[in-house]
Amino acid sequence: MEYDFEEERIVEEIKEGNAKKILLQLPEGMKKEAFRIAGLIQKNTDGEVVVSGSSCWGGCDLAVDEAKKINADLLIHFGHAPFVRTDFPVLYVELYSKLDAVSLLDKNIDKLNMNRIGLVGSVQYIKQFEDLKKYLESKGKKVVIPKKKGFSAYNGHVVGCEYNSLKSVEDEIDGFLVIGNKFHSLGAALMCVDKDVYLLDEQSNNLELMNGERDKTIKQRAIAIDKVKRARKIGIVVDNKIGQYNMKTAEKLKNELETLDKEVIIIVVNEFNPGLMNFYDVDAFIDTACPRIAIEDYQRYGKPIINSREASVVVGKRSWEELLEKGLIGFA
After folding, report:
1. Residue 100 to residue 103: CA distance in whole angstroms
2. Count of domains for the chain
3. How far, in Å, CA of 67 to CA of 253, rounded?
4. Staple 184 to which of 87, 180, 311, 327, CB 3.0 to 4.6 Å?
């Protein structure tokens, strides 16, 4: 896969802002580009470049604290759209895909068994949405691009934790076509459990129906919620990341769980990882940070983990059926 790193814009922005020290933040799969980008900047500007080696999972994971600590003038964040507000200068490079999504869809169009389509995708494909819409309409399809909502920066844009825009068009469509990868398409499938969700996969160059993966994941989540219901000692995890910090949610859940005679502690972390298993006497965990950790990373942990929205079933605020109706992806 090739992406547009917008090198000319980066150089222009640095010169215009007269930035002298720049922190680069790249997602995990793009850290291999760090040397090239740093060299480009230092060759064409007066700026000194430092690269963040910390993990970067989304626009919620902005390295503002690192930038301030090294006295940087500018943070350049790659791969995501604006997500959180900050008083620190941030240049977002959204890494638009150079893949011709229309040509890829044309090769797979016979597999797309729906006529009224909700078109969504990751930020890398935002610029191709109108061409995709025109192509689908030329094939006799009705296409709806949901209006942006919540953390989405653009119409049709989905991020790992934000799919509320999909709910707003559910009644108008037969299902969704997601342009991007399995992460974003599974999120859409878990948000709209009664709709077909197809993935136009940038990795496999294939069109894939996500319903089977969704059904398997829903069973996993039902089992996890049941285990947390039966747990005696529960750890509620709060992540310090700028876009994931939810202490108020944690404190509210703690009070609600204690009324059910649960023993509860709040655990603050810089990153949610299997090191939590060192809390040997904790029976189960509730993740108040990214709601996808409990889903995608469930097998990495030896104890049940649920997100804060799923916890609403544990404390009796929603039934399992109501959770499915609202969607499994989101916050309490």
Report:
1. 6
2. 3
3. 33
4. 180
Query: Smallest Cα–Cα separation from 102: which of 132, 75, 122, 76?
Result: 132
- The residue among 89, 81, 88, 79 whose CA lies nearest residue 25 is 79
C-alpha pair distances (Å), 146 with each of 117, 160, 326: 10, 16, 17
pTM score, two decimals?
0.94
Can you tell me the distance from the alpha carbon of 123 to that of 132, in angstroms, rounded to the nearest whole number? 14
Within this chain, do residues 105 and 34 fall inside the same structural domain, yes or no?
no
Whether 59 and 120 map to the same domain: the answer is no
Residue with tokens 């941030």: 90
151 and 73 in a common domain: no
Contact indicator for 273, 301 with CB cutoff of 8 Å: no
Same domain for 57 and 112: no
The 10s digit of each residue's pLDDT in 155-214 is 999 999 989 999 999 999 999 999 999 999 999 999 999 999 999 998 899 999 999 999
Q: Which residues contact 12 (CB under 8 A, 6 or more apart)?
A: none
Beta bridge partners of 162: 159
Local confidence band at 331 (pLDDT 50, 70, 90 cut-offs): confident
CATH assignment of the domain containing 23: 3.40.50.11840
Structure tokens at 163: 């799919």
Helices (H), 117-210: 129-138, 164-167, 182-191
| Token pair of 89 as six digits | 């200068």
Residue by residue, DSSP assigns 292-328 as THHHHTGGG-SS-EEEHHHHHHHTTSS-HHHHHHH-S
**Could you give the angle at the alpha carbon of 127 between the alpha carbons of 203 and 31, nearest 5°?**
50
Structure tokens at 234: 């529960």
Inter-residue contact 152 to 159 (CB < 8 Å): yes
Same domain, 237 and 322: yes
- CATH classification of the domain holding 176: 3.40.50.11850
Domain that holds residue 30: 3-94
- Report how far residue 95's alpha carbon sits from residue 6's, in angstroms, rounded to the nearest whole number: 8
